[in-house]
Amino acid sequence: MRKAFLILLSLLILLPLFSLFFWVFTERWPWPNILPKDFSERALKSTIARAGELGNVFFTSILLSLLASFFSVLIAVLSGRALAFYDFPGKRLISSLMLLPFLVPSTVFSMGAQILFLKTALYSSIPGVLLCHILYSLPYANILLNEGTRALGEGLEEQARVLGAGPVRAFFSVSLPNLFPLLLSAFTMAYVISISQYFMTLLIGGGRVKTFSVVMVPYLQSGERNFAALYALIFLLVTTLVFFIFEGIARACTGGRRAELFSDY
Amino acid sequence: MGLSIRDLCFGFKEEEVLLSLSLSVESGEFISVLGKSGCGKSTLLKVIAGLLRPESGEILLDGENIAALPPEKRGTVIVFQDLRLFPNMNVFENIAFPMKLRKLSREKIRERAEELLSLVELPGLGRRRIRELSGGQQQRVALARALAAKPRLLLLDEAFSGLDETLRREMGDFVRRLHEKKRITTLLITHQKDEALRLSDRIALMSGGRILQYDTPERIYHCPKSREAASFLGETNYFPGELRGGSFFSSLGEIPLGSGEEERDGRCELMLRPQEIGIREGGDSILLRKSYEGESWKLLLEREGRKLRLSLSSSEYEAFSRSRGREPGEGERFGIFRREGSGLPVLLPPETEGEPGEVFHGKEKAGAGF
């Protein structure tokens, strides 16, 4: 029963992917035909011809999203500690404000940011897009890390301190390794949020900052489904590859063991 | 040298937790700080270890004032109640952690970790994950890790509370044996009086952020300085009476106290523990309730409007029952008496009079009793 359920679940994921693969070589597929009417390699050939340009777009996309994720996680770790371990005036307000981008739709947020950035050098620049991506992915990282930091508590760090570790050493030796699974989740979440931003990147980047989403979406809108399908597959492949690299880094950092988060301490 | 705490004050928000607390511990001593939950004993430990900053006062360790030092520079290691073993490290790595901080060589760390694992009777378990250990084993690893830090002062914060009764006793004895071997100055925080009495060289009774009494287990138990101190270490019974001409007179009769007490004439109360009172046939005490507790029987009697608690060993209870042909029944009347050899009589001021903590211990003449 469990096996059958898993097979069904796999098919639900794999079938649309298979359909994407089919669409790459499909020029026309009019209704009510069961099979495509015209096959062509136009999308594939054109994309291979633009490989250099697309490589640059990918490089920009991945770098932008990695940076956005890194800064989101960094800010979330620090703010998580501040909110979990310190009392200061306005703590609850700050905690709520940090989740605000969650509540504001991406389009509204982007338009507001665009108006603000138009007055500065941030408009139509990579730093401007990066800043918006950080702000927009931060609440996701925050939610995961605030709760994780609170649940882990200060206990292990206190123990490390009395055993002779300074505050920085205590954090890096004890808290960070135990937060690692959450860090990785937060990083992955922020990465996915960032790399799939289309409207925000287009608006803030003014069309000059080209990410893969910015290049791919017009094909979808204009009905060039073979191009859109090919781009979607490449996007999927690259993202999967990036996640495998994350996983490898995680294994290297935890010495190949799973960290036992929240195990009574 | 050891530890010397002078006028230590600590407050949390608007609540004063430690009130001008002073305590002195000799080098190599095993001290228990005994108190109820919330009396400030764990706070005291954290202040000593530097995890909390005191408002005022001095903490001298081997003559050096460590009050301003960060926790890692104090040499005061805590074994917490929840042990706080690092889950991202195995047993060996946990024990090696403080040694790595001291920058010992790999070889030295391995050698010392193995020594410590043998000392805590866990040889060969270095590679185990923490979650693969039992509660008692985790406790031993936490101790080994604390010893690996070469503490000048070992602080045990309710370290055995998480264990079941048998294991708690075993671990307590184990720690005491370790202490005999290493002679590290040790402060045990506990709310278990039996643990404190059994393990300590001296006990500091703590209540409301203050030390009520600081003395050897025997003196704390038999000569409490106040009603509060007396009630910490077990149930008590009070007999009102009068101190007159070197003797105490109460409904139990006369207890001659010897010379030196004449000038303290006046009203006071005699404190007796449940096991210091005996029972006999016929009298003015009504048995209200009795309960069997394995090694002993607990009896609740009423006498002159006061409740009295007695504790008879099972053999005494059986002998008494045999002597009268039946077990003592609820509602029956009995006489009570102060047992022979109950030690020095403890006389305390009447409940409504005198300063808290004021006490005068009688100097009983040899053989005196009821």
Characterization of this structure:
The complex is a heterodimer of chains A (265) and B (370). Helix content of chain A is 75%, strand content 2%. Chain A has 265 residues and is mostly helical. A two-stranded antiparallel ribbon of chain A has the order 1-2. In chain A, helix 7 (126-152) crosses helix 9 (167-195) and helix 11 packs antiparallel against helix 12 (225-253). The model of chain A is unreliable at 259-265 (pLDDT under 50). Chain B is 26% helix and 35% strand. In chain B, a hairpin with a 2-residue loop joins strand 1 (3-12) and strand 2. Chain B has helices at 41-49, 91-101, 106-119, 135-148, 165-182, 193-199, 217-222, 227-232, 314-324; strands at residues 3-12, 15-25, 30-35, 56-61, 64-65, 76-79, 153-157, 185-190, 202-207, 210-215, 237-244, 247-250, 253-256, 266-272, 277-292, 296-303, 306-313, 333-338, 346-348, 360-361. Chain B starts with a strand and ends in a 9-residue tail after the last strand. Chain B has 370 residues and is α+β, with helices and mostly antiparallel strands. In chain B, the strands form four sheets. In chain B, strands 6-7-8-3-9-10 form a six-stranded mixed beta sheet, with helices on both faces. Chain B has two domains: 3-222, 3-Layer(aba) Sandwich (Rossmann fold), CATH 3.40.50.300; 235-361, no CATH class. In chain B, helix 2 crosses helix 3. The chains are: A mainly alpha (265), B alpha+beta (370). The A-B interface holds A 155-156, 158-166, 169, 173-174, 177-178, 180, 254, 257, 259-261, 263-265 and B 49-51, 70-72, 74, 76-78, 80, 82-88, 97-98, 101-102, 129-131, 145-146, 149.
